[in-house]
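chain below, 488 aa
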Amino acid sequence: MPQTTAHYDVIIIGAGLGGLSCGALLAEAGRRVVVLDKNKRPGGYAVSHTVQGHRFDIAVQAIGGCGADGPVFKLLQDVHIENSVRFLPCEPARTYYTKNYDEPWQQAGSWQDIVHNLCERFPDCRESIAACYRIWSGILQELMALAGHGSAGAAFEFVRSSPLLSRYGSYTVQEFLDEQRVPDELKRLLAARAGYCMLPPQRLSLVGFACTEMTYSAGAWLIEGGIQRLSEALAGAIQSRGGSVMRKTRASAIMTENGRIKAVRTADSRVYEGSCAVVASAVRPAFEQLLDKPGLLPGRYAKKLAAMEQTGSYYISYYSVPADAAAGLPPNSEIEQDLGPISETWSPDVYYMLIPSMVDASAAPPGLHCLCLSLPCPAGYVLGGEGRRRCRSLLEQAVSSRFPQLEGRMTRLLELGPEQLAAMSGNPAGAAYGWAQIPEQSGIKRLNIKTPIPGLYLAGHWTMPGGGIAGVITSGRLCAQAVLKNRT
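prediction:
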């Protein structure tokens, strides 16, 4: 027999950072909020795990948007918990090693420093370099302004109010850089952060790249004590303002009446009543498996949803290494190197190495470092046990050949593949950033925060503005604004 709980103003499905951000802002505004999550810990991908005294942020590397003007720090200020989380700068933000092992490119943590370094390296391209960052900054500002004001009337004045989005909305990064007529080596450095988006420049949306580039160009950070502290702080903000975060509570149905949201039922047969619900989890399964009347979705919307392309996932392996073996290595690296074939259709040529204890000494026991190797996997790829063993073997061989001081000195503690990340996050195939940032589904072409079903909203990396922690937190803010605007 279903059990009915008290009525809530807003029911949020998913306690990732999108759902928690939205919930914290709504609770701060006086709304009665409940957040439902299938896991025992809030955070989604933003959780930490400790093995033999080594702490890892399971699926998070350095994050952007944590400076005084960044979306992460601004959120904490707005819900009055800025003193509960300490951000540690990761400098350089990322170090890039190319296949030919030439001098690595150390990407600074501020766009001003990046521009200065690039201009020194390419003095004849100063105007082009400055133009790139000016345009990218403008794209991000226009997208945030458009998202914040909603889409009403945007079609009529779009070119005037958003000239950069209007001009570059369908561009790839490669098309944009070709238009700038800069040398190939400068193109490579300007587009270095494309790896964050898991797409090559010839497929990556300029809008999606601009958002990522300008967010990280205000600094890259780790959280002292682990990313879990951010998730727990936001959950605590909700609870301290009268809201609830229901852990180990899986949503089983989104219930509607007369075409509007009525309630959310959970797997334990509880019914959480409310006329407003937020899907802060994987969107396609929510609509296909939870919505009690899938026919409520307009045909055009359902067709768009079915055609959208997901990002890939990761194989991640975590190690303990002696401090002297890691001496001199940067904290956050991207390495181009042919690893060899994982399968007949996949031969990776790039991987990532993060040493979080270089930034936060509390992440490893004295005399040791924790080291994380991650390998991006194609969208929908299933590794299985044999695939994980193959990935691990090739990664360890590649790291030992590139950094000989690590050979034989890495003790594996834990590994995860797309299947484990899918189970943890609920993202199909462990998709790392929701929808892929291709031109057809970036910026205003991404799913809107407000769905066609009255009272149903989206938050997280499946909606605007896109993936990454800063983007997900921004989506939570935009979702809270939309909910408040329609209920005041």
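The two ends are 35 Å apart (CA to CA). The CA atoms of residues 231 and 452 lie 30 Å apart.
thats it, cya
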